[in-house]
Amino acid sequence: MCKHLEKLAQEIRKGAASVDGVDPKLWQVLETLQEDLLSKLSAAPKSDAPLITPSDLAEADEFVFGFPTRVSMMAAQF
């Protein structure tokens, strides 16, 4: 997860957590690029956020998505 996107996600999560009864979770999508290519792209280190699964999506009530870009395009995982 891009560090600036992760920071934004953490702030959104804090705001959502301030609402009674809301338990926001932060996930990331599995990286599909090989490590050598990521290093050539100077990709940010991986986040500590857990990887999301289809069952996580099915259990959620609401979503907020953030998409890092590569060469001005949405990352291929999405």
From TrEMBL:
Alphabetical list of InterPro entries matching this protein: Flavoprotein-like_sf
PANTHER family named among the record's database cross-references: FLAVODOXIN-RELATED PROTEIN WRBA-RELATED, NAD(P)H DEHYDROGENASE (QUINONE) FQR1-LIKE 1-RELATED
Family named by the database record: Belongs to the WrbA family.
Protein name (record): NAD(P)H dehydrogenase (quinone)
Organism for this UniProt entry: Brassica campestris
Taxonomic lineage of the native organism: Eukaryota, Viridiplantae, Streptophyta, Embryophyta, Tracheophyta
